[in-house]
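Appendix B. Chain record.
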Amino acid sequence: MSRAMVKKKRIGRPKKVAVFDVDGTIFRSSLLIQVVEQLIRDGVFPEEAQNSYAKEYERWLDREGSYEDYIDGVIRAFRKHLRGVHYGALADAAERVVAAQWKHTYRFTRDLIKELKDKGYFLLAVSHSPKTVLDKFCPRLGFDKSYGLVYEIGPTDKFTGAIVDEHLIYNKANILKRAMEKENLRLAHSIGVGDTETDIPILEMVAKPVCFNPNQSLYKYAKRMGWKVVVERKDVIYVL
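Structure tokens predicted for this chain:
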């Protein structure tokens, strides 16, 4: 038997993949928002950190501003105040958030994840939330691997404020391609689920794209492409 044949046999057949966004797609909030709020409660971040997004939050609640503006404010607060924080403080906050809220998921995606897991799919999560919290949240739902933002840690285990491989993680298509190579995945019969336009690169790659509770930008794109659109409201699930 040739060396190439032995290697192929050892690797095995490529696995079917299902790739999910997390915030607003599985989790009924944002893991980053919840972690920032927890860090403030823990006294790791100052209470003034909320000033970075308080106005945007109120405008979003009043439906006068966008959710994107609100989450951008949360991101600014997180990056500004993370520098100099010990890794353990973030890990502890993430653990508390996940322990209390990991069941705060949408029924549609929760049931879809279980169905695909039972069918032998490799479950992949790709998110712009910190990997520290994703690594605590995603395994509880049965995910095999998760990709998120990795923040640089200095020699004293404190964050420097920089993001590792920032150019890579913000391109979700490249993340999926990397996962396919490393995990021996295939796109045939693949499924992708997302809720905003940042998920379009992945949805364009998979065989079965699903737009779940999409924002306006993704909804318009999905209708042009003929993609499946699903909306969950209270205890009713609509397929548009």
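Further analysis of this model is presented in Appendix C.
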